[in-house]
Design a protein that fits this description.
143 residues, 66% helix
């Protein structure tokens, strides 16, 4: 069995990690903060992995990332996950025009957009896109 690596934390870092563990935005971030806190208590990676239901290599990788980047390194980086079907930068004007032409009939607007953009998507996707872009434009107007 190898030597247990101990993470030395300042009072400020410990407080940041505690806050992140309690009130962090995402579950993964909260769990990563907890990993580092447990590691600072001189616990072995295997024990932490068993407690958090992950692999000890995962624990060690997050410890290395924390040591290199601090608490910011524990946050999930952008670009993860599936790309959006409808992009604000390229599709917004076409979506607005189609919705204007078929105001109360979202199904017709969807069918028109699918042929124009050559992208299949659901009505829910279109509604979600509209809701997101309208909310964003309302925020810009209120500022």
């Amino acid at each position: 069995m190898g030597k247990t690596k101990i993470v030395q934390l300042s009072d400020e870092q410990r407080q940041e990690l505690e806050d992140g563990r309690r009130t962090g935005r995402g579950h993964a971030f909260r769990e990563r903060c907890q990993m580092i806190l447990l590691k600072s208590e001189k616990r072995p990676s295997r024990e932490i992995a068993r407690f958090l239901d992950c692999h000890k290599i995962t624990v060690n990788q997050w410890v290395k990332r924390f040591e290199a980047e601090g608490i910011e390194g524990l946050k999930t980086r952008p670009g993860r996950g599936r790309r959006a079907i409808l992009q604000v930068s390229t599709d917004l004007s076409k979506v607005r025009a189609a919705v204007q032409r078929s105001r109360q009939r979202i199904g017709l607007a969807k069918a028109e957009l699918e042929t124009e953009l050559q992208k299949p998507f659901s009505t829910t996707t279109l509604k979600r896109f509209l809701k997101k872009t309208i909310a964003a434009s309302n925020e810009l107007e209120s500022d």
